[in-house]
Amino acid sequence: KKILSTPMYDKRMELARRAFIFSTLTGLAYVDIMLLHPHHIGTNADGRRYIRINRKKTKIEAFIPLHPIAERILSLYNTTDDEHPVFPLPNRDALWFEIHELGVIIGKEDNLSYHQSRHSFGTFLISSDIPIESIAKMMGHSNIRTTQGYARITDDKISRDMDKLMERRKIQSIGEKTDNNK
């Protein structure tokens, strides 16, 4: 959250911040963001925008409906000229340095990384009750076990799941009592 609310005044740092946020909201790895071109961005029949790209690492297609913040970030960059990537990112080492600096600025104790952003994406989705099969497709995984390594179950998610179970049991027991009273 802090990274969302802390704009950078240096152009390179702001680009790094936006690309990192974009990665966190799409689950795309650094190399996939580097390879992202306008033709990977589409709109479905309902007007919902998405990214469809074969992941560099796995060659598996990732299909990612876009979060509104990710859409806003895209609108600031190249979404029309397919000769150039969407984001004008520097080389990997320069971007890694900027991401590290960004972490220092926002007070993050451990280093920020694109790998962390993928984990955050998976954890956010699983915590939002998105089925693991859908998360696997969005992350470009062919094996759900791989996705399970990214989508960490939080204590809050476990508590909410237990609350849902208790609510279902309560409704079932009320229904059983009603049936017994007939």
TrEMBL record:
GO molecular function, one term: DNA binding
InterPro entries according to UniProt: DNA_brk_join_enz, Integrase-like_cat_sf, Integrase_catalytic, Tyrosine_recombinase_XerCD
TM region positions: 20-39
Statement: the UniProt record of this protein carries the keyword Membrane: yes
Keywords carried by this UniProt record: DNA recombination, Membrane, Transmembrane, Transmembrane helix
Domain Tyr recombinase: 1-163
Top-level division of the source organism's lineage: Bacteria
One of the GO biological process terms: DNA recombination
CDD domains: INTN1_C_like
PROSITE patterns, alphabetized: TYR_RECOMBINASE
Cited PANTHER family: PHAGE INTEGRASE-RELATED, PROPHAGE INTEGRASE INTD-RELATED
Name of this protein: Site-specific integrase
Source species of the chain: Parabacteroides distasonis
